[in-house]
Structure formats: structure tokens, C-alpha cells
């Protein structure tokens, strides 16, 4: 008798920017205690999970050559964890993962984490697993600190190593311009650089998180712009001094404020509205300070099934530098 092969499942998953990133002390497990406000952005990856002749991973799109197409891929690690959780073997089940990247690799925008979150949602749908979002969030947290947030989406306060989330009220759609750098930065290296800077001196620290939450509730981009802050920025700039110029160029181009996204090197610029974002993107792309510029908005939902392989795929406007 022929087995019924389920149709492929495609999931769209957002990137993230940290509006506020307070890095505390190093814990015994090597992670730093964080207080962060995440916002999910419309710059996305898409992950298809299918039953195919050959199990494995393939990667296409933005930075694909720098992403492992093997068991080290975070999406495959997620597939493996979830399969183990339900007592199945993804290789024997001929699971193939196809990743289309829009999120820069090693860019501080949680691209690998996004693919892991998307793979969890896609495999759950393919295998019709009756798992709640809480079960998925627990598996997600074991894969990486950012994975639970991109699964969840929206705007959220993250504590612990970033995996403990509380949704945050955000009334407004915020408009962003993202400047991709020519090369990525390694997250552990940036945390280590911050430890070094702190051992030697007193790099700037972000203030309290409450004013950020109030600015989000008010929905006023000018108020939020004054409060964007990231303790990892000094470390990212120390490792990649050219980012100082990029941050200045975004503000000179008319952004309300700019920040390094997470561990960088992507710079995120908050703009007054959608038109302003397009103007800033056009000017920044001609300034010669980055590889590529994108516009995006947030908050957007977390990892969501978008249907089969022929589902329509809106791509974000792109401006090449
Ligand atoms: C910095 C942040 C801010 O949102 O994002 P990115 O810039 O990487 O996107 C995150 O904390 C990154 O989360 P994620 O990329 O999932 O990191 P993980 O895989 O959990 O950890 C990678 C490494 O980063 C360091 N790390 C990560 C999180 C944390 N709270 N403290 C740490 O010191 C550790 O060296 C760890 O081994
Ligand atoms: N699916 C994936 N997408 C991107 N990077 C991945 C993926 N799987 C593994 N990686 C590896 O993870 C590292 C960076 O992850 P990424 O999430 O893009 O960066 P960041 O932590 O700065 O947001 C790189 O070394 C990359 O090779």
C-alpha cells in the first residue's frame, strides 16, 4: 500500500531588533543576564519543510554561502530536537528543509534563530503534532536565546538570557531602515569584547527599561527614538569601528535615531513614518557606508504557516548601496 505523503509546509518568520538591550553580569553557565525589549520586523526568512527523496537542508538567498547546509544548521537542530521530543527520526522520515534567507547572516537580527523557530512550526504542521505554543517555546529556548522571541513575534520584554518573554503593548507601527554590513559579527565574540571593555573601563550602559515601555504604549516614534539603547553597541563598534560612520550617516540622512541591532553589525534606524523611511533608505544607500539597505516595519507576528510552495511571497523593498 502506498503511504500518503503530506504536502510541504512553508513558514514565514520575522527578524528582530532590540529596542533596549541591558546586559548584566556573566552567569555561571557563561550566558549574560539580559533585560531586553524585542520588536519583530517585516524583514523575513521563509522555511519550507517537506518529505523528499533526500533528507537534509538547502539554503538560498541573502548570505546563503555562509550558512551550514548540514546538521549544524539551526533549523535542522530544531527539527532534530522536535523529532526527538515526539520519538521520531527526521532522517528516516526523509525530512528536507529549504531555507530562503532575507535576514542577514551573523547580523544581530536573529536570522538563524528565526529559521529554527520556523522549522519548529513547519514540522509541527507537517506531522500534525498537537503541541501547544508553550511546548514549542520550551524546545525553542533550548536551541538559542532568541528563538522563543521570533516564534512569538510582536513586541516583548525578554529576561533571563533573553528567552523568558512577556508581551509588551505597542500601539503603533514603527518604520525602520536597516543597513547591512559587508561581513557579519560573531555573537559570542561581541559579548566577550563587552566583558573586556568592562574590565578595562566603564562603557556606556542603557538606563531603565520602563520609559521604553511607556514610549511603546504611547506609539510616539520621536519619544521612542530618544530611548533606543544597546549595551552591546560599544563592543560591536570596538570590533568594527566603521559602524560609527554608518550610525552617523543614518541620522544625517534624516532618521530619528540609530542603534546597532543586538550584537551587530546591522544598524537599525527608526524613522518618523513610511515615507521618511524610504527617503532615509535612498540617501543612506548612496552614502557608501554599508553593503545594502532595506526598509522594514514592526511589530509583526512571529513564525506563521503561509501555505504551500506556490503561496505568494511579498518581498520587502530593497535599495542596493
Ligand atoms: C545578542 C542577542 C540579543 O537579542 O541577539 P543577536 O545579536 O545574536 O541576534 C542575543 O542575546 C543572542 O541570542 P542567540 O543568538 O540566540 O545566542 P545563543 O545561541 O543563545 O548564544 C550564543 C552565545 O552568545 C553569548 N550569549 C548569548 C546570550 C546571552 N544572554 N548571553 C551571552 O553571553 C554566549 O557566549 C553564547 O554562547
Ligand atoms: N539557518 C541559519 N541561518 C543563519 N545562520 C545560521 C543558520 N544555522 C546556523 N547558522 C550559523 O549561526 C551563526 C549566525 O547566526 P545568525 O542568527 O544569522 O546571527 P545573529 O546571532 O547575529 O543574529 C553563523 O555562524 C551561521 O553560520
From TrEMBL:
Binding site for ATP: 104-114
Keyword Kinase part of the UniProt annotation: yes
Active site: residue positions: 16, 146
A molecular function GO annotation: ATP binding
Domain GHMP kinase C-terminal positions: 213-287
Catalytic activity entry: 4-CDP-2-C-methyl-D-erythritol + ATP = 4-CDP-2-C-methyl-D-erythritol 2-phosphate + ADP + H(+)
Pfam families, A to Z: GHMP_kinases_C, GHMP_kinases_N
Signal peptide: none
UniProt keyword annotations, A-Z: ATP-binding, Isoprene biosynthesis, Kinase, Nucleotide-binding, Transferase
Superkingdom of the organism of origin: Bacteria
EC supergroup of this enzyme: transferase
Domain (GHMP kinase N-terminal) ranges: 73-154
UniProt key word ATP-binding: yes
Pathway: Isoprenoid biosynthesis; isopentenyl diphosphate biosynthesis via DXP pathway; isopentenyl diphosphate from 1-deoxy-D-xylulose 5-phosphate: step 3/6
Biological process according to GO: isopentenyl diphosphate biosynthetic process, methylerythritol 4-phosphate pathway; terpenoid biosynthetic process
EC number: 2.7.1.148
PANTHER family: 4-DIPHOSPHOCYTIDYL-2-C-METHYL-D-ERYTHRITOL KINASE, CHLOROPLASTIC
General function of this protein: Catalyzes the phosphorylation of the position 2 hydroxy group of 4-diphosphocytidyl-2C-methyl-D-erythritol.
Similarity comment: Belongs to the GHMP kinase family. IspE subfamily.
Name under which the protein is recorded: 4-diphosphocytidyl-2-C-methyl-D-erythritol kinase
Amino acid at each position: 500500500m502506498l503511504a500518503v505523503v503530506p504536502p510541504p509546509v512553508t513558514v514565514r518568520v520575522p527578524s528582530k531588533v532590540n529596542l533596549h538591550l541591558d546586559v548584566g553580569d556573566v552567569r555561571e553557565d557563561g550566558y549574560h543576564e539580559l533585560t531586553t525589549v524585542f520588536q519583530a520586523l517585516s524583514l523575513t526568512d521563509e522555511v519550507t519543510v517537506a518529505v523528499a527523496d533526500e533528507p537534509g537542508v538547502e539554503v538560498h538567498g541573502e548570505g546563503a554561502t555562509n550558512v551550514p547546509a548540514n546538521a549544524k544548521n539551526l533549523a535542522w537542530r530544531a527539527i532534530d530536537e522536535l523529532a526527538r521530543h515526539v520519538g521520531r527520526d527526521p532522517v528516516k522520515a526523509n525530512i528536507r528543509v529549504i531555507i530562503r534567507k532575507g535576514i542577514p547572516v551573523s547580523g544581530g537580527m536573529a536570522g538563524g534563530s528565526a529559521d529554527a523557530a520556523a522549522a519548529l512550526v513547519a514540522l509541527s504542521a507537517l506531522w500534525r503534532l498537537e503541541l501547544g505554543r508553550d511546548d514549542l517555546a520550551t524546545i525553542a529556548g533550548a536551541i538559542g536565546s532568541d528563538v522563543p522571541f521570533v516564534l512569538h513575534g510582536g513586541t516583548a520584554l525578554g529576561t533571563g538570557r533573553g528567552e523568558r518573554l512577556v508581551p509588551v503593548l505597542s500601539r503603533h507601527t514603527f518604520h525602520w531602515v536597516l543597513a547591512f554590513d559587508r561581513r557579519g559579527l560573531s555573537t559570542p565574540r561581541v559579548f566577550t569584547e563587552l566583558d573586556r571593555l568592562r574590565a578595562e573601563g566603564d562603557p556606556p550602559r542603557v538606563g531603565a527599561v520602563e520609559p521604553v515601555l511607556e514610549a511603546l504604549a504611547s506609539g510616539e516614534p520621536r519619544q521612542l527614538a530618544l530611548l533606543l539603547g544597546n549595551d552591546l553597541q560599544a563592543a560591536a563598534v570596538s570590533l568594527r569601528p566603521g559602524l560609527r560612520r554608518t550610525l552617523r550617516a543614518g541620522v544625517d540622512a534624516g532618521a530619528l535615531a540609530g542603534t546597532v541591532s543586538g550584537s551587530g553589525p546591522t544598524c537599525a534606524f527608526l524613522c518618523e513614518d513610511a515615507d521618511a523611511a524610504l527617503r532615509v533608505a535612498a540617501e543612506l544607500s548612496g552614502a557608501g557606508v554599508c553593503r545594502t539597505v532595506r526598509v522594514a516595519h514592526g511589530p509583526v507576528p512571529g513564525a506563521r504557516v503561509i501555505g504551500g510552495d506556490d503561496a505568494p511571497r511579498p518581498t520587502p523593498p530593497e535599495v542596493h548601496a
